[in-house]
Design goal:
A two-stranded antiparallel ribbon has the order 1-2. The chain has a two-stranded antiparallel sheet with strand order 3-4. The protein starts with a helix and ends with a helix. The protein has a domain of 366 residues: Amino acid/polyamine transporter I. A hairpin with a 4-residue loop joins strand 1 and strand 2. It is globular. By secondary structure, it is mostly helical. Helix 6 crosses helix 7. About 5% of the residues have low confidence.
Length: 639
């Protein structure tokens, strides 16, 4: 009876251990060894195409409204400084994305990087969050286009009847046919091919950038004529103080979200090692420069307190006798929204395709068209879903959920950089069909290792008999610490790796405690301060330990080498994790409740389907050193 209960306990423990290991199993970096079945995505994009995708996705119509609201309520004339600080904060994430994109240039973006560096469960969490972000983001952008088109045409009465918003009396729902039609048009363009859709994206983005350049040039000319009256506030460049400027930076930070869309097209880039980091860098630099110049001009034309919060740019030009400029500004807003809509719908089919390839979603989503070389089924599915949402639902209240997906992705990418540098994966999964080659190579290498040990032992006997050995023998007797130090050096990499893993985990815990305490305004001050102090102490101590440790040598051979490397590790990824975690914690309770419901749904989908159908279910993990030998043995057998 007791033995039977022990057996059951051991079996249960074994199942739990196996289940936990399956949650943290990691996949291999796609390389020349990985041969995908079926058709491939077309590698046609250049650095210029990627920049157009990134800029178009990042610069939405929000900037045409944001400058008025933030300047009036938070920053005053210091709006430009807020944009600069937010741009630098976004650059931290961009550096992390650039390294991982060049090392692991495959579809899936942050989901793909998390699966390689952290594990399957975290990758699923990020992928599921990004699905929500792209779907709601695309629908929200589409709902914002029709009012701007109506404004450009002089009012809703000038729109064709079938495009006008109207209410269904029985349901009390305001439907937007124009938004749904625009989503379907963009879906058709994306199905036509990546080069065709990127060409349209480039044209639309160019029109948007030209509209912003008009604002900068014409606004600068008017400001020079009027004497930059917005800055004639003696001693009031920071009317809301430093805290107001930093609060403005936190708000305008979200206007930089979108550069990560560049990594979604990694598998369609001609030269990913060079063009992906270049596309990310040019996107962020161009957006930051445009944002800063527009804010300099608009805040300089009129005093910040006189800006119209709804239409700050158009109203500013009208106040200076240029009413006709409103048409150019509105055209810029419309093209900005169209480019952003295309950028929102582009990465999602590729994300679904990557998740389906890994077995976490049905294989239906991984099909690639033989003619256009794009995932047409995934594109049509996501386009139809976004069109239905844009037609029936006012998703503006759900827009905060979009930020959660992006900030979670930014945080996980920065953590992946720390793992990659200090504790990269030591083993890689191989299909069970290669088991015979794995056993053969393992046996051969073990035999070689034993032969080397015997040879070294024999060499040691020979050395013992030589006169020169007496010097070493005397040194060993006189200095026994030499041999001890030699053994410690052999064990040092494993010890250093364990220390690094624990300190990365402690750093994340410290960040969580610190940011939670900083954003929990409902708690008593003493509790917030003490909790924050504990979190800060854990954070700083673990960061100091990481800074003192040597980075793992295996990082040099991880993934595709020769690409961009993130600088100032571990400090830059650490700052990125801290900033994004604080922004996550600052989101409203209502947003987190809605996101939690979505994540619980995702966990149920993963348990019921993804966990069971994962491509790593029957994978065999082997050391990295065995990999080339196994593939050579497999190739020679096939020949």
């Amino acid at each position: 009876m007791i033995v039977s209960m022990q057996d059951k306990g051991e079996a249960l423990l074994s199942k739990c251990s196996k289940g936990f290991k399956s949650l943290v199993r990691r996949k291999q970096v796609d390389s020349v060894h990985v041969r995908r079945e079926g058709h491939q995505l077309a590698r046609k994009l250049t650095a210029l195409d990627l920049t157009a995708i990134g800029v178009g996705t990042t610069i939405g119509a929000g900037v045409y409204v944001l400058v008025g609201t933030v300047a009036r309520e938070h920053t005053g004339p210091a709006l430009t400084v807020s944009f600069l600080i937010a741009g630098l904060a976004a650059a931290l994430s961009a550096f992390c994305y650039a390294e991982l994109a060049s090392r692991c240039p495959s579809a899936g973006s942050a989901y793909h990087y998390a699966y390689i560096c952290i594990g399957e469960s975290v990758a699923w969490l990020i992928g599921w969050s990004l699905i929500l972000e792209y779907t709601i983001g695309g629908a929200a952008i589409a709902r914002g286009i029709s009012p701007n088109i109506a404004l450009f045409l002089g009012g809703e009465g000038n729109l064709p009847a079938f495009l006008v918003r109207h209410t269904i009396p029985q349901l009390g729902v305001v439907v937007d046919p124009c938004a749904a039609i625009l989503v379907l048009i963009v879906t058709f363009l994306l199905c036509a091919g990546i080069k065709e859709s990127s060409l349209v994206q480039t044209i639309v983005t160019t029109v948007n950038v030209c509209a912003m350049l008009f604002i900068i040039v014409a606004g600068g000319y008017l400001a020079c004529k009027t004497g930059w009256v917005g800055y004639e506030l003696h001693g009031r460049f920071f009317p809301f103080g430093l805290n107001g400027m930093l609060a403005g930076s936190a708000i305008v930070f979200f206007s930089y979200i979108g550069f990560d869309a560049v990594t979604g097209a990694a598998e369609e880039t001609k030269r990913p090692l060079r063009d992906l980091p270049l596309g990310i860098g040019m996107t962020l630099t161009l957006c930051c420069i445009l944002y800063m110049l527009v804010s300099v001009v608009i805040v300089g034309l009129v005093p910040y307190y006189a800006l119209n919060p709804d239409t700050p740019i158009s109203s500013t030009f009208s106040a200076n006798g240029m009413q006709w400029a409103a048409y150019i500004v509105t055209a810029g807003a419309v093209t900005a929204l169209c480019a952003s809509l295309m950028g929102s719908l582009l990465p999602q089919p590729r994300l679904l395709m990557a998740m389906a390839r890994d077995g976490l979603l049905p294989a239906f989503f991984s099909d690639i068209s033989t003619r256009t070389q794009v995932p047409v089924k995934s594109t049509v599915t996501t386009g139809m879903l976004a069109a239905v949402l844009a037609f029936f639902m006012d998703v503006s209240e759900l827009s905060g959920m979009v930020s959660v997906g992006t900030l979670l992705a930014f945080t996980v990418v920065a953590i992946s950089i720390l793992i990659l540098r200090y504790a990269p994966p030591e083993e890689v999964p191989l299909p069970s069909s290669l088991q015979q080659f794995i056993d053969s190579v393992r046996k051969q290498l073990d035999d070689d290792s034993q032969s080397m040990e015997r040879k070294e032992f024999n060499d040691a006997d020979i050395v013992e008999q030589s006169p020169s050995q007496s010097v070493y023998g005397e040194a060993s007797i006189q200095y026994p610490l030499i041999e001890k130090q030699f053994c410690e050096d052999k064990q040092n990499p494993r010890r250093r790796r364990n220390i690094a893993i624990w300190n990365i985990a402690l750093f994340c815990i410290g960040v969580l405690v610190l940011t939670s305490a900083a954003s929990a305004e409902y708690l008593p001050s003493l509790v917030r301060f003490s909790s924050g102090a504990v979190g800060a102490a854990i954070l700083l101590c673990s960061l100091v330990v990481l800074a003192c440790l040597n980075q793992d040598e295996a990082r040099h051979s991880f993934g595709h080498t020769g690409g961009f490397l993130c600088p100032f590790v571990p400090f830059l990824p650490a700052a990125c994790i801290l900033i994004n975690s604080y922004l996550l914690m600052s989101l409203g309770v209502g947003t987190w409740i809605r996101v939690s419901i979505w994540l619980i749904m995702g966990a149920l989908v993963y348990i019921s389907y993804g966990w069971r159908h994962s491509s790593l279910t029957n994978a065999v993990y082997v050391p990295m050193a065995y990999l080339d030998h196994i593939y050579r043995a497999s190739s020679s057998h096939q020949v």
